[in-house]
């Protein structure tokens, strides 16, 4: 096929992008979005600071804009993110203990209920493990409410929206390493104890310090073998030209080689839309022209 979304769909997968609500009125942006992608992730609009700016007072207008755009263009939606140590509103940062735990559960219940039936998969918990070799949980206010906070979050999300796939999402978990193995052990434990979890998201922010690991595909496969789906959730690859193009193809091929890899999402449309625009890490240049990386990703999808 001739677009990313249609080519991914021919393999039973989706091809998505992060979207910012305020850019939907930019016609260069929305033309590419509507032509190429069949999944969207709100880049910031579903985060805690955006959806519950003060306690128990919910604000969905920006996220709803993305959801209605997606629905009217037959795109699926990845919800991002229900519980995360970052981008918490100030009132959350000043809570602890039972009050924080209950606030988190109330947040998850309200947001997942608001979008019930509309979300393909939710990042229920984002970035809860520490970097480095400890394999430990990240220290955070949520972790301080008790080690069971992650499973409590997944149970609340399942109760609110039983149809959504529930994902754990993280970075620096793309290859087999101490951090990804800690996540792997958590997923294995959740499956053994019947804690609801359906998928694991691999952010895949790639640069020269953090290249595609040689065991990237094997790592996706070991999670799939636990009985969960896997998704590439925030893909961007620093660089340009042939090297960047080849790396995009490598990532696409890894997903296509894993039956339970549902699809890929790039973290923005044009290089200028990226959270790290200086790395020119996306598939379209600042003017919305297709880069070599685009053609390479498309060709890899069509070869699958
Ligand atoms: O909305 C405010 C605006 O009111 C204010 O005037 C402006 C001034 O700085 O800031 C705006 O908020 C910014 C927000 O993006 C919306 O543009 C924040 O400062 C900025 O920190 C925030 O950055 C986002 C970042 O997450 C925050 O952690 C990026 O756009 C977003 O791409 C990035 O995405 C994360 C994923 O959620 C999780 N994985 C890593 C990934 C990259 O960091």
Automatic annotation (TrEMBL):
Alphabetized UniProt keyword annotations: Carbohydrate metabolism, Glycosidase, Hydrolase, Polysaccharide degradation, Signal, Xylan degradation
Highest taxon, organism lineage: Bacteria
Record's catalysed reaction(s): Endohydrolysis of (1->4)-beta-D-xylosidic linkages in xylans
UniProt keyword Signal, yes or no: yes
Enzyme Commission designation: 3.2.1.8
The keyword Signal belongs to this UniProt entry's keyword annotation: yes
Segments forming domain GH10: 1-300
Active site: 234 (nucleophile)
Assigned protein family: Belongs to the glycosyl hydrolase 10 (cellulase F) family.
Protein name (database record): Beta-xylanase
Species, as recorded: Paractinoplanes globisporus
């Amino acid at each position: 096929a001739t677009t990313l979304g249609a080519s991914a769909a021919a393999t039973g997968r989706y091809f998505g992008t992060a979207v910012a609500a305020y850019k939907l009125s930019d016609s260069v942006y929305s033309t590419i979005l509507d032509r190429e992608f069949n999944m969207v992730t709100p880049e910031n609009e579903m985060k805690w600071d955006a959806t519950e700016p003060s306690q128990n007072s919910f604000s969905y207008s920006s996220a709803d804009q993305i959801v209605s755009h997606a629905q009217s263009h037959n795109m699926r939606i990845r919800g991002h993110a229900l519980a995360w140590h970052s981008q918490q509103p100030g009132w959350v940062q000043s809570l602890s203990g039972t009050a924080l735990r209950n606030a988190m559960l109330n947040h998850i219940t309200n947001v997942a209920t608001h979008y019930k039936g509309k979300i393909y998969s939710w990042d229920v918990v984002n970035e809860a493990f520490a970097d480095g070799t400890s394999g430990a949980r990240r220290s955070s206010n949520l972790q301080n409410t008790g080690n069971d906070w992650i499973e409590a979050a997944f149970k609340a999300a399942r109760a609110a929206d039983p149809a959504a796939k529930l994902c754990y999402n993280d970075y620096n978990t793309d290859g087999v390493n101490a951090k990804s193995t800690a996540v792997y052990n958590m997923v294995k434990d959740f499956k053994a104890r019947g804690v609801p979890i359906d998928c694991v998201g691999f952010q895949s922010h790639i640069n020269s310090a953090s290249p595609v690991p040689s065991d990237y595909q094997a790592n996706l496969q070991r999670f799939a073998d636990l009985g969960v789906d896997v998704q590439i959730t925030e893909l961007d690859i620093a660089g340009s030209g042939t090297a960047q193009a080849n790396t995009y193809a490598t990532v696409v091929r890894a997903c296509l080689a894993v039956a339970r890899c549902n699809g890929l999402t790039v973290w923005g449309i044009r290089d200028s839309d990226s959270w790290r625009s200086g790395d020119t890490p996306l598939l379209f240049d600042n003017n919305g022209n297709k880069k070599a990386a685009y053609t390479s990703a498309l060709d890899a999808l069509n070869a699958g």
